[in-house]
């Protein structure tokens, strides 16, 4: 087999492998997302100390007990005391001083809906929404402005949902430590849940955030490296063809 034939064979084999693997990969990924619908929750953070939910007054008040700062949450006749896990450096209005560790949010399930319209309806109070306080706690004893921000695997998140009948539904979850392709661990945040998406609101914007792992890439299997290998073979073959010298023209009169 001549070098020209080998180069053309490499080009053709790479093209076939790339196209075949690519088509199969698209089918696998498409089937994955058909079976695993993505949930989308729309959140609207509130920067107010007092509001109304389910006909009950909600108030948030800063208190200090024995030199330790707390945030008292009143909901009707119920009271919830939250320890301030990341004290604010400045006495700012509203809830801005607490935004590094706590968010008061209204939210709805916006899966399959227009995001902008859902957000507009949520702000206007046209939707049957839910009210939530989410908090983030760094590793105990760490400086929240330095190592407390970096040691994300030690973060814990608490979710306090205001129940329409009164009181709070509380859940505590840890930062996810599973690697790509592993099953979620018990007691940790799971993707595609309202708790996970609420926790994202508390992640430092200039610091580490969690990477998505629950994606269709897992379903691609061998088709992903197959497509990549086919692409490399095709490029190598194409470069080889371009570098080939043209065959000499037959002598005149031959």
Structural class: alpha+beta
Number of domains: 2
Mean pLDDT: 81
Largest sheet: 5 strands, antiparallel
Termini Cα gap: 26 Å
Percent helix: 25-40%
Strand content: 25-35%
* Tally of individual helices: 6
Rg estimate, integer Å: 28 Å
SSE succession: HEEEEEEHEHEEHHH
Strand order of the largest sheet: 1-6-7-8-9
**Unreliable stretches, pLDDT < 50, 5 or more residues?**
none
Q: Given the C-alpha coordinates, what overall shape results?
A: elongated
Number-wise, the strands total: 9
Description:
- The chain contains 6 helices and 9 strands, in the order H-E-E-E-E-E-E-H-E-H-E-E-H-H-H.
- It folds into 2 domains: 3-33 and 228-243; 39-200, no CATH class.
- It is an alpha+beta fold.
- A hairpin with a 2-residue loop joins strand 4 and strand 5 (78-83).
- Helix content is 31%, strand content 25%.
- The strands form 2 sheets. Strands 1-6-7-8-9 form a 5-stranded antiparallel beta sheet. A 4-stranded antiparallel beta sheet has the order 2-3-4-5, with no helix packed on it.
